[in-house]
């Protein structure tokens, strides 16, 4: 058996199930989950209709590179959204949601690579980065997220460590903090990648969930273009329709950027067998071509975040994230105890921040925080805020 499998940690939701084992939640209250980041708004008609009208696509094997119309549509969307030019022929490939691709991309970069065997990413983090590092035969480098900025400062790593890093994941908008990398942050990262020759994998699946319509998050491709790196050297960006279009079950996204990396990844994927169904490709064309449902989606999140924050303002002051659909809340006492009490007394499920982080430099930066995913309906989110208030007012 592959010995690296033993290095994988229990997924946060497994740990949560263990924490709650044997505990009976308050039976007088209906369950509300704020723990899993699964969008719950309805999947738009435009996607459902396109899926149905292209059902014949199920009768053919799809190609791994994807249909030209899909690659063109995604390139045009990237151009509209990020003012970045992507060649649909060489710089973009469809992926089955960003999760599988964030994972398998590491297999493409690592292997017997001559560069070091380390993979760096922010801590706390989306758990796939760590699994990808281990199963790629590499060691993770955790970089603690700064409590003030909500981002990891990779320039704090020593030159020696950076020289060993072959792959570095960034997540902007960040899960769980909601912080967004600025153009300056990107400049610093590009300089480090040039100096130490590593590949940047930018996880941007929350880029379309933001609150200020006039100030959408900067993306990696956008930053590269604005900074005169229009070949996207050593940069690939991952995104998907899961959060943008409330279609987590569609399993549809894209990877775009450095043509050399994309061509190697496409080769890998051909063997890996991760081609997108033609039916799903057509539904994805419809989704990327429509912005109305995305704006409506943002409006719903805006309402939920404002109401949630206002209900809790005197009991648990919450800072608005710049983007994404999580509050990263500092709670009194231990995060696991808070999650347990909230579940037991109020039947609301939240994710302890420590489950998303690892101990590094003497502490786990997720500790003392919980992640609140405002994915449920407006009504359920408001109700959850009132229940958190009730828990804290009762002296948790
Ligand atoms: C930071 C981050 N990246 C990637 C993903 C994967 O999403 P998907 O595979 O649906 O694109 C998630 C899902 O929750 C996430 O939180």
From TrEMBL:
Keyword set includes Transferase: yes
Required cofactor(s): pyridoxal 5'-phosphate
Residue ranges constituting the Aminotransferase class I/classII large domain according to the UniProt record: 32-388
Entry superkingdom: Bacteria
CDD domains: AAT_like (cd00609)
Keywords associated with the record: Aminotransferase, Transferase
Record InterPro entries: Aminotransferase_I/II_large (IPR004839), DapC_beta/gammaproteobac (IPR019878), LL-DAP_aminotransferase (IPR050881), PyrdxlP-dep_Trfase (IPR015424), PyrdxlP-dep_Trfase_major (IPR015421), PyrdxlP-dep_Trfase_small (IPR015422)
A Pfam short name: Aminotran_1_2
Stored Gene3D superfamilies: Aspartate Aminotransferase, domain 1, Type I PLP-dependent aspartate aminotransferase-like (Major domain)
PANTHER family: AMINO ACID AMINOTRANSFERASE (PTHR42832), L-GLUTAMINE--4-(METHYLSULFANYL)-2-OXOBUTANOATE AMINOTRANSFERASE (PTHR42832:SF3)
Protein name: Succinyldiaminopimelate transaminase
Record organism: Limnobacter litoralis
Origin organism lineage: Bacteria, Pseudomonadati, Pseudomonadota, Betaproteobacteria, Burkholderiales
